[in-house]
Amino acid sequence: MNPMSTSPPLKTWLPSWIFLSVVWGLAFVFIKIAGQDLAPLQVALGRVLIGTVVVWISLAYLKQSLPKTRKVWVKANIVGLLQHTLPFSLIAYGETHITSVMAGIANAATPLWVAIFALIFIPSEKLTKTETIGILTGFVGVLILIGIWEGTTSEGDLLGTLAVIFATAGYAMAVIYTRGKVSPLGINPFSFTGAQLFSSAVQLSILCLIFTDVPRNIETSTIGSILFLGILSTGIAFPMVFKIIRDVGSVTAATTTYAIPIVSTIAGVLVLNEKIHWYQPIGAAFILWGVAMVQKIKISDITKIWSRRGDLNP
Hints:
- By secondary structure, this protein is mostly helical.
- The protein is globular, with a radius of gyration of 19 Å.
- The chain has helices at 10-34, 40-61, 70-94, 100-106, 110-121, 129-145, 155-182, 189-211, 220-248, 250-254, 256-272, 279-294, 299-306.
- Helix 1 runs antiparallel to helix 9 and helix 2 (40-61) crosses helix 3 (70-94).
């Protein structure tokens, strides 16, 4: 049998892949815009709240229910904290100090943290020589990204960059926790997504009540940005990841890591007129090179993905 005949048709996953790459890349621009009127916690809350509504409507349409056990809801609260509450707030805070271009590039460090946390929290996990070199390469990329050798990075720039880097650590912890504590339970991923988003919305609501004031003025651009972040880059995007993994596997899903910084950089320059320092693309290249080694993604793997002719299948 021709192996190509068993390849998933491009039309079953490529539109989802493009959608994720674009909406997650553009998200950094809309976070920047929303942050002009809203506090970082409020940006995160608006995004998660709308995302929760979108997912719950989808669950109702599909006639699927939310988890019913206390055990699962406890885990949903933990994942919601790590996957949404902390990262969304930290990225929004970071973009009050740095450009969306910088934030989009720094966000690509997530797989590096996944490898580090897997080594720490999963006893059976061992780093290979290639993975170790990949982590070190990614770390060098972060140092290049912030222009550390110049000694002129302002405190605000450093805080902003570190905020985004720590946000990616939250994403990574969510991956490790989900892999070890949630996946073995066999929970419907879509249902669990609805639970973790709602949990995060409750967490952020409490934080906003304690630490933020009611916004005095909200521009139309801010409302549009929050709607984009909530509907597209949260409510639709997160469940779509599971679809890509189901259809073509995690390697293909992971390649969005390489497209997102490209989209965010182009958007930041064209929409917000942000400037790019000469060393930022170099830092990005080192980070993505390190990520490729950690994820064991080779050029040949990407070539195989994009050379599939499954779209010719009936």
